[in-house]
Design goal:
The structure holds 2 protein chains of 2 kinds. Chain A is mainly alpha-helical. Chain A has 29 helices and 8 strands. In chain A, the strands form 2 sheets. Chain A has a 4-stranded parallel sheet with strand order 2-1-3-4. A 4-stranded parallel sheet of chain A has the order 6-5-7-8, sandwiched between helices. Chain A starts with 35 loop residues before the first helix and ends in a 17-residue tail after the last helix. Classes of the chains: A mainly alpha, B alpha/beta. The interface between A and B is medium-sized, with 27 and 21 residues. The complex binds iron/sulfur cluster (3 copies).
Chain lengths: 762, 268
């Protein structure tokens, strides 16, 4: 009978998420934020809700046998006859909810049954912390507190009500739970959480109607759920007040103090005639009960269903890096490429649409939306959901009848093109901000890229710039159309060791590192520093080819696989085991995506290796440099997608006379520079360019320069500085550097910082 | 509407100049690693033109892609097939090597006769490697067909083709009876990006390969022996810059010296 205590891994008392490399999707808590402690307290409290609420209930119940009937207590179902009607309504309620969910489930089932359950421990942990514990919800303090209020209030009041029912079934003369001090405590807890619930509802209402955000407007759902809950709580208090006034206040005023809100209501209605109050009480009681049941019925038809679906989705979300896109296996044998119809989505992707609660967080953090460009991840999900409700249900109906899935659907709008516009799909940077912020663990990126895949591979419909990038990738094996360089130009005059198969690391320069004027000096700096520190490494030089990342993010999975298979053959043929990549995008692809294609390597980003070299004293930055203030821009493919935030910062901290300042959006909240998802090669549409937004943020810090560790970010920043500071004299503009360049300057040429360690190869 | 599109495979014209070198003694371009052969971009537009003409004509008819070249030239044909052409023909034999525009046109004309004269024969305006732009016209001459060159648009109407040509000071609208030879300029518009399904189908399609014997050609007429153009030298033009600083005590003197220099170089 008593609710069981949670078993298995408790979601508290674990090390901070940041320390656990096995689930990079849970970033470490933001460190130097002033509200840090408050937030952490709230967070821990929130995560623990599923524990302390049942525990409290358990405590009350187990104490039951000592109850005495003569202490403070109340009459159950006071003033109410025929309450069995309620029990009769329960099956109806269950049927209604089941019907609502089943209708949605029919739509989910038109998708491809492609479920994954690998790494169940990671999934389970996320389900407990993120799903039940609302960890992600708490990332936004206001909404987090609001949600916590409402959620805990519902949970506690549900238990309070259940306890009352249980108590009713206990034989009155032997055991009672709700008597004596326990009854008084119970009353207080009930009142308190009713009040907390009202606060939560108030916050939610303020969030929507008093100071609404610009990105979304409250829907009917919001009105039903919040209105219903608010009314439920208010009527609950009125009922309590009426009961106290009519049955308690005269004889046991001291009991009434334990229901403070009810007591106030009782005082307020003190002048009303008892008979009238009793009549009102009876009517209101029935209203309250029907309202409660109807509100629970919303579970089947509104986003209230998230209280079950969100934890389920937390479990279903892929446990790996958000930088990894799903592979299309056996691509040659597919009937369609990517997603142009609802039924091409996986069942999980369709399920996800129903999990979305329209909170707008994804859109609030989307760089495209921030720059006023035509993309809002929330609307992608919501528009698909609406489409699934309409067209999806008709398709499911067709299937159920055994008819062709598109029967009678000629009038339906086109999903990719009309419902979801092409320009929205192209504006996505695959930066992962949406995936990270979504409190119900929706994965937007695969859904967006799947639709791009269909645009490119099925329909060959894409912006000219995308087409020309893909053609260049096909023909030249790199995306830099018109480059005057070969893959070896950057090596001129520098003694760069070529890969022999004997060295420890392959330094993978990448197309951008080799072919772009602005980036070549950075590549040369990396080589110089690696040599200076005596690292055993080599480069593939002319043998390199694109790893396929741009092709994949642009939706040409086929080209990606061809490029990747070619490169894996080169790498394996050369006996490569450890790779240091120049570019975060290469890093992500090698690390997270190549294993699917049979390429298994130990992959490092250059900043990680250089951090290690500085730490070991193999590179010792020299003092004497002029003072400089620098701000660091996180690359999403290193940071959010791979949880690497500190290595570049640690290098910067080792450079004498350098002050590091952070932009307000930093680390896991860092704003993309705008280049990701192939947007490096596209024209942007919208109010501003993403790089201009980001450069403005860097300028606001007052830093002399912005630095990063990504060759795309460097270019985006330079372009952004050019347009934001157009009128500023060049020498006064924000400097843009790779961290490596600053380290290089701090290590004068020809002064090896340390003896080459033994074991270093030629 | 039936069409034959003749295409050539060339070293990627986007390759940076630094990647090329020339063996002046052998009079050959040394192929640098990493320079991939591609379909001549103008020829890709020729395929596009054929596809658009057929679409405007109701979509019926066969488009064939024909190329003279070594094994690798198959890829150029496949590019055309992936875009939507139906059949591929390749003229591949060591005897074809070392030819010029004349021998190429001769072989192509024979092949076209063998395939069967279509409504239109389409070429790119020129190959982006040697930029001669003559093969199309020679084929027209050999087959006795009218030829309209450097087109930015073409449409089929009442058994005629109305075209707009790019000329030095504008455009020229003319029409020609079919069959005719058209050569397509870049103003025609970007070639389409093939759908993946078409790429895969193209990969599976067979390309018919013919040798001189299949075409009834004598090896002496074609290739290096049949060529009428003789190459005397092949070299990379050298781009040299010299930088000279004019030294003098005052700005006026410097300006005077500079003016003298410029006059000497006949620049002012
Ligand atoms: S991945 Fe980034 S750019 Fe794309 S929708 Fe999400 S937040 Fe926006
Ligand atoms: S997708 Fe997630 S973050 Fe975006 S609105 Fe829906 S629930 Fe909120
Ligand atoms: S270039 Fe840098 S910030 Fe921009 S998308 Fe790539 S990793 Fe993200």
């Amino acid at each position: 009978m008593p609710p069981a205590a949670p078993r298995g891994p408790l979601p508290i008392g674990r090390p901070a998420a940041g320390g656990c490399p096995s689930h990079p999707e849970d970033p470490p808590p933001p460190t130097p934020v002033r509200r840090g402690r408050l937030r952490r307290t709230v967070k821990i409290g929130g995560i623990a809700v599923p524990i302390w609420v049942p525990l409290a209930g358990l405590g009350l119940v187990t104490a039951a046998e000592t109850g005495r009937i003569d202490g403070p207590h109340r009459e159950l179902f006071f003033n109410i006859a025929d309450f069995w009607v309620l029990y009769a309504l329960l099956p109806l309620l269950v049927a209604v909810v089941v019907y609502g969910v089943a209708r949605r489930a029919r739509v989910w089932r038109i998708g491809r049954p492609d479920f994954h359950f690998d790494q169940p421990r990671v999934r389970l942990r996320r389900m407990l912390r993120g799903g039940a514990g609302t960890e992600r919800v708490l990332r936004d303090p206001y909404a987090g507190v609001m949600h916590l209020c409402i959620m805990s209030s519902i949970l506690v009041l549900f238990l309070v009500t259940a306890l009352l029912a249980i108590d009713d079934y206990l034989p009155d003369d032997k055991v009672r739970i709700l008597v004596g001090d326990r009854y008084l405590g119970y009353s207080l807890v009930g009142d308190l959480f009713g009040l907390i619930g009202l606060i939560g509802v108030g916050m939610a209402v303020a969030h929507r109607w008093v100071r609404p955000r610009t990105t979304w407007l409250p829907s009917t759902e919001d009105k039903l759920i919040l209105g219903g809950l608010g009314l439920l709580l208010v009527t609950g208090f009125l009922l309590e007040g009426f009961r106290i006034q009519t049955s308690e206040i005269a004889e046991h005023r001291d009991w009434s103090y334990w229901s403070p809100v009810g007591f106030v209501v009782a005082l307020a209605v003190g002048g009303v005639e008892t008979a009238a109050l009793l009549a009102a009480h009876k009517a209101l009681w029935w209203f309250h009960m029907v309202l409660a049941l109807s509100w629970i019925g919303l579970l089947g038809f509104t986003k209230l269903n998230h209280l079950a679906l969100a934890p389920a989705n937390a479990f279903l979300k892929s446990p790996g890096s958000s930088g990894k896109l799903p592979l299309i296996a056996n691509i040659e044998e597919q009937e369609h490429f990517g997603v142009s119809q609802l039924e091409h989505f996986t069942q999980k992707q369709l399920f996800e649409l129903d999990v979305c609660v329209r909170c707008g967080r994804c859109t609030d953090h989307c760089p495209a939306d921030i720059a006023g460009q035509p993309l809002s991840p929330m609307h992608i999900i919501q528009d698909l959901k609406t489409y699934a409700t309409d067209v999806g249900e008709r398709k499911a109906g067709n299937l159920a009848r055994g008819a062709p899935i598109d029967d009678g659907l000629d009038d339906a709008p086109v999903m990719v093109g009309e419902v979801i516009r092409d320009e929205s799909l192209w504006a996505c940077r695959t930066c992962g901000a949406c995936v990270q912020e979504c409190p119900v663990f929706i994965e937007h990126i695969p859904t967006i890229v799947d639709m791009r895949r269909s645009l490119v591979m099925e329909e060959a419909r894409m912006p000219d710039t995308v087409q020309s990038t893909l053609e260049t990738l096909e023909r030249q094996g790199h995306p830099w159309r018109g480059t005057p360089h070969t893959r070896e130009s950057w090596m001129d005059g520098l003694d760069v060791p070529r890969w022999t198969g004997e060295q420890e690391y392959l330094y993978f320069v990448g197309c951008t590192g080799a072919l772009v004027d602005r980036v070549q000096p950075i590549t040369r700096s990396v080589v110089r520093l690696l040599r200076e520190a005596g690292v055993s490494f080599g480069v593939l030089a002319g043998q390199e080819s694109c790893n396929g990342d741009p092709a994949r993010r642009l939706g040409n999975e086929y080209l990606f696989q061809i490029l990747a298979e070619g490169l894996i053959a080169t790498l394996d043929g050369g006996g490569v085991k450890k790779i240091v990549t120049h570019c975060p995008h290469c890093f992500n692809t090698f690390k997270n995506e190549y294993p699917d294609l049979g390429g298994h390597y130990e992959v490092l980003h250059h900043s990680t290796l250089l951090e290690r070299l500085v730490e070991e004293g193999r590179l010792r930055p020299k003092p004497g440099a002029a003072a400089q203030t620098v701000t660091f821009h996180d690359s999403c493919y290193l940071g959010r997608h791979n949880n690497l935030y500190e290595a570049p910062r640690n290098i910067l901290k080792q450079i004498p006379n350098l002050t590091l300042v952070e932009m307000p959006r930093n680390r896991e909240r860092g704003l993309c520079c705008g280049a990701g998802g192939g947007n490096m090669w596209m024209e942007e549409q919208g109010r501003a360019r993403v790089n201009e937004v980001r450069v403005a943020e860097a300028l606001d810090t007052g830093a002399d320069s912005a630095c990063t560790v990504c060759p795309f970010c460097v270019q985006m920043f330079e372009a952004g500085v050019g347009s934001v500071q157009m009128g500023t004299d060049e020498s006064q503009r924000l400097g843009v550097f790779d961290v490596v360049e600053l380290l290089d300057v701090a290590l004068p040429e020809g002064e090896p910082a340390a003896e080459p360690p033994s074991g270093a190869a030629p | 509407m039936d069409a034959i599109v003749c295409v050539k495979q060339i070293p990627d014209p986007e390759t940076p100049a630094a990647a090329f070198s020339v063996d002046e003694a052998a009079m050959r371009v040394v192929e640098a690693p990493g320079v991939s052969p591609v379909i001549n971009p103008f020829d890709q537009q020729a395929v596009e033109a054929a596809l658009r003409l057929r679409e405007a004509d109701g979509g019926a008819g066969t488009i064939s892609v024909l190329s003279l070249g070594p094994d690798s030239a198959r890829d150029a044909i496949k590019t055309g097939l992936a875009m939507g052409a139906d059949e591929g023909y390749q003229l591949n034999d060591p005897a074809f090597e070392g030819g010029d525009a004349w021998t190429t046109a001769l072989a192509l004309a024979k092949a076209i006769e063998k395939i069967g004269l279509p409504d239109v024969l389409i070429f790119g305006r020129q190959a982006a490697d040697l930029d001669q732009g003559t093969v199309g016209s020679i084929v027209a001459e050999l087959l006795g067909l009218p030829s309209v060159t450097v087109l930015r648009s073409a449409e089929l109407a009442d058994g005629e083709i109305r075209v707009s040509r790019v000329v030095a000071d504008g455009f020229e609208s003319i029409s020609t009876p079919t069959p005719a030879v058209l050569t397509i300029s870049n103003e025609f518009g970007d070639p389409r990006y093939p759908q993946l399904r078409q790429i895969m189908q193209a990969a599976r399609k067979q390309v018919t390969v013919w040798t001189p014997a299949d075409l009834g050609l004598d090896p002496g007429e074609i290739g290096a022996t049949g060529a009428r153009v003789k190459m005397h030298a092949l070299y990379q033009p050298r781009n040299e810059t010299e930088c000279e600083f004019i030294e003098a005590d005052t700005a006026e003197e410097k300006a005077g010296l500079l003016a003298a220099k410029l006059r000497e170089a006949k620049l002012v």
